[in-house]
Amino acid sequence: MGLPTLGHRFADELPELALPWQAEEVAAPQLLVLNEPLAAELGLDVDWLRSPDGLRFLVGGLVPEGARPVAQGYAGHQFGGWSPRLGDGRALLLGELTDREGRRRDLHLKGSGRTPFARGGDGRAAVGPMLREHVVSEAMHALGVPTTRSLAVVATGREVQREVPLPGALLVRVASSHLRVGSFQYARALEAQHSGDRSPGVLQRLLDHAIDRHHPDAAKADRPALALLEAVAAAQARLVAAWMQLGFVHGVMNTDNVTISGETIDYGPCAFLDVFDVAASFSSIDEGGRYAYGNQPAIAEWDLARLAEALLPLVEGDGVDEAAAIELATASLGTFRTAYAEAWDDGWARKLGLGADGAGGSEEVKAVVAGLTDLMRADRVDLTSFLVALADGRARDLVLDLAAHDAWHARWQALGPDVDLMRRTNPVRIPRNHLVQEALDAATAGDLGPLGPLLAAVTSPYDVDGSTPAGMERYAEPAPDSFGDYTTYCGT
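Above: the chain sequence. Below: its structure as tokens.
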């Protein structure tokens, strides 16, 4: 087995959003990490991927016959400001694979060189940020959170100039697609520029493409555009609730980073809470805290409102004027809050051992969850460590207000928590910021030694029997006090 077959349905159906392009040549690629289980899932030959031809394929230099690599066009609101033309400035969609379960998956490069969407950037990426995406996305997958995946990180042998010179690398990303809210914003803007030719227009074709690929039930609805909006709202509600319950801070929730599939995408300035703080923001570019931990649900809803705006022309018609279309879209958008509340309640019910889906709807459970978040916020506890300690009967040791803890603990115990369910639901090992940074700093200096143990730890996050395997103790410990404030960077 050698070169795989890569489809190009996105490029065929949506040429207005697909700019044919080629990756920058990489003279001496070096494989830093290969995700062998994912390769097997995709039907790729691991040994071949490690060969010189396989490496050329991974960096976009060896393109399968019939493939049509493209840079994708999209728009977006970045930190609330409108950018009408963003697109893949340093990325390339090589094409689409069909995995062993018959699912279509995008194969995509990040850091593969400048495209016409680059907007002044160099189109390249550095070792550290690309390994961060590999580590955190694979950890999220192990945690059961919908996410894009990382197939490989390949060093390019080139120096990348940022604040200081850094070794270059590119990421090979796999996703159910790279369609995003910004894709619909871009299509809407294109149609506004060519309002005389909409039969069928790019916005309708994008809607049909997204529905067929991700939410096929929406095709049966009376108003498919609204059905898609509601399906995306539900998927994003579940996703963001999962982030919140893990203490994950995405850091850059622009509309171009909100997927139609409901997968997490773009692990740039991301991090996990070291202490429970709703104002926590780790991004060097989020100076106002727009994308802080506690703001993520509201920001997701704001981003979905931009999707609703982009879909409005498809809601109008058949006797529906603009005012009525806005009213209908607003009602569909309103389903996000209900879906988020359900995901939040049910997720916490499981994490506290109080039942499976539906259990979080009881007023008793809601009160216990609210009391817990108040307690964690007041005492600034480590979310991950606290929940593990709660299952083990050690949580009292982690708080300052013992009276508040004891009163809450009594209410929780009265509901009869299932400790086994808690251990299946609450991770012991997450990508701790200090450990991730340790591995990235070492890799940037040419030492991949810390990376392997970190990956092994975060891709095996649960200890269902309550005991930590030998050698993994440090990956279950919170950051030392000396670690201090943590800042992450986009890498562009």
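Residues 33 and 153 are 5 Å apart (CA to CA).
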